[in-house]
Amino acid sequence: MSDVWSPTLLAIERAHVLHLALWGALSLALGAGLAITLLMRRSRAPLPTYVGIGMGLWGLGELLFAALRWHGLSERDYASALRLATQLRLAMVGEVWVIAGGAILLCAGGVLLRRVSFSGIGIAWMTHGVVLLLLDRSLLAQLTRGG
C-alpha cells in the first residue's frame, strides 16, 4: 500500500526528470547548432566550436540519463525517499567537482597550455555543472520541505 505523499513525490520527481530532459535537449540543440554552423562556415574559431561540441555531448548524456530515469520512475516508500535525498546530496558533490574540473580546464587551457580546446570544453563543463547543481538543489529543497 502506498503512502499518502507518495504520488506527490512521484509528481515532483517526474517534473525534475522533465526539467533535466529539457535542459539536455536545449543544450544538445544549441551545442550541435553552434558547432555545425561554425563548421559549415569553415570558421577558424576554436573556442566556440569546442564549447558547442562540449555542450552537445553533455546534452546528449543528460537526455540519455533522463530517459533512463523516466523509465524507472515509480512511487516510493519512506526508505526509498530517504535514499533519493542521499543520492541527490552525493550528486551535488559530484556536480561541484564537475564545476571545479571545468574551471581547471578553462584556466589550464588558457594560461598554462594555451589550448583553446581545453578552455571551450571547460566552459561547457562548468555550465552543465552549475545547471545540474541548481536542478538537483531545487529537487532537494522540495523533498526536504515536503513538496
What would you say this structure looks like, in words?
The chain has one domain (6-144). The protein has helices at residues 6-40, 46-71, 78-112, 116-144. The longest helix is centred in the first third of the chain and has 35 residues, at 6-40. Helix content is 85%, strand content 0%. The chain is built from four helices and no strands. With 147 residues, the chain is mostly helical.
How many domains in all? 1
Strand content: under 5%
> Structural class of the helices, strands and pairings?
mainly alpha
| Number of extended strands | 0
Largest sheet: none
Distance between the termini: 20 Å
Radius of gyration: 18 Å
Number of discrete helical segments: 4
**Unreliable sequence segments:** none
Overall residue-averaged pLDDT value: 90
Roughly how much helix do the residues carry, as a percent range? over 70%
Shape: elongated
Order of helices and strands: HHHH
Short descriptors:
4 helices; 85% helix; mainly alpha; 147 residues; single chain
Structure at a glance:
This protein is mainly α and 147 residues long. The chain contains four helices and no strands. The two termini are 20 Å apart.
